[in-house]
Amino acid sequence: MAPVAALRSGSASGSGTAVANNSDGKALLQTVTVGNSTNICWQETMVSRGDKEVLLGQRGCVLWFTGLSGSGKSTVACTLEHLLHERGHLTSLLDGDNIRHGLNKDLGFSAADRTENIRRIGEVAILFKDTGAVTMTSFISPYRADREMVRQRCQPGEFLEVFMNIPLEVCEARDPKGLYKKARAGLIKNFTGIDDPYEAPLAPELVIDCYDDEGQPRSPLAMAQQILHTLEDQGYLRDPTIPTLAAAKALQRKHSDGVLDFAEL
Ligand SMILES: Nc1ncnc2c1ncn2[C@@H]1O[C@H](COP(=O)(O)OP(=O)(O)OP(=O)(O)O)[C@@H](O)[C@H]1O
Ligand SMILES: [Mg+2]
C-alpha cells in the first residue's frame, strides 16, 4: 500500500487507476486502491487542521494510555480530561469498555480481534486528533506491534504513548471488576498478565510510575498532573494569557461596536 502522504498528494502508484482527461478535456483526479477500497480519491477540505488548532488554542494529539487491567488508565485519563476541560481545552476520551458497547461490539479478545480493536480505535483517535482535540485512549493494548501501527499513522509528535507502569500485584489487588479472580480461577481465558502477554512499551513518551521518590503510592491526580505538565512544557497547550480565536469571536459578538478588548479575555 502507498504511504498516506503519497495518497493524499495524489501521487500513489501501482494499484491506482488514472485516466488522463474526461470528455471536456479536463484532467481527471487520480483514484487509488487502499485495502479493499477501489477508485477512491483523497478529498482536501477547506478548513485546515491548523485553522482548527488556532480556534482551539491547542495542538491535536493522541495520548495513548496502555497498561494492565486495573493499572488506572481510565481513572487517570478521566482525571486529566477534567483538568484540561477546566483550563478550556477540547478533549475526547475513547475508553475500552465503552467502545466495545458500540463500534467494536462484534470483536472478542482473540489476538486477531484485539489487533482489529486497536486498529479501529486508532483510526477514530486520529480523526479526533485531526480536529484538534487532545484525544485520550484508554485500552490495555497489550501488543507492541498494534500500538506501533497507530503511531505510524500519526505524524512525529502527534502520538504520545503513556505507559501505566503499575506492577501486576498492585493491579490484581485492586481488581475492581473481579476479573483477575475469574482469570486465576480459569473462568476467563486469554486474560492479559495472567495467560496472555503484556508487552510493555520500549520507548514511551510518558511513564507513569506507581510510587513517588519516597516510595509512597501516587494518586490519580498526581499522575494526571504529570501528563498535563508535559503537554504544557512541550507546547501542546496555548499560553493561557494568549486568547484563542474562539474567545476573541465570543467577545466580538458581545460588543455591538465590534471593538475588542483583549484585557477582558
Ligand atoms: N493512582 C491510583 N491509586 C490508587 N488506586 C487507583 C489509582 N488509579 C486507579 N486506581 C483504582 O484502580 C482501579 C482500576 O482503575 P481503572 O479502572 O482506571 O483501571 P484501567 O487500567 O482502566 O483498567 P481496565 O483495563 O480494566 O479498564 C479503580 O478502582 C481505581 O479507582
Ligand atoms: Mg479502563
Short description:
With 265 residues, the protein is α/β, with parallel strands linked by helices. It is 37% helix and 13% strand.
Beta-strand share of residues: 5-15%
The CATH class of the largest domain is identified as Alpha Beta
CATH architecture of the largest domain: 3-Layer(aba) Sandwich
| DSSP, total strands | 7
Ions, cofactors and other bound molecules: adenosine-5'-triphosphate, magnesium ion
* SS field, number of helical segments: 10
Supply Rg. 22 Å
H and E string: HEEHEHEHHEHEHHEHH
Total domains: 2
Overall pLDDT, averaged? 87
Judged by helices, strands and strand pairing, the structural class is: alpha/beta
CATH superfamily of the largest domain: P-loop containing nucleotide triphosphate hydrolases
Spatial strand arrangement across the major sheet? 4-5-3-6-7
CATH topology of the largest domain: Rossmann fold
Please estimate the helix content: 25-40%
Shape: flat
Spans of 5+ residues with little confidence (pLDDT < 50)?
A: 1-18
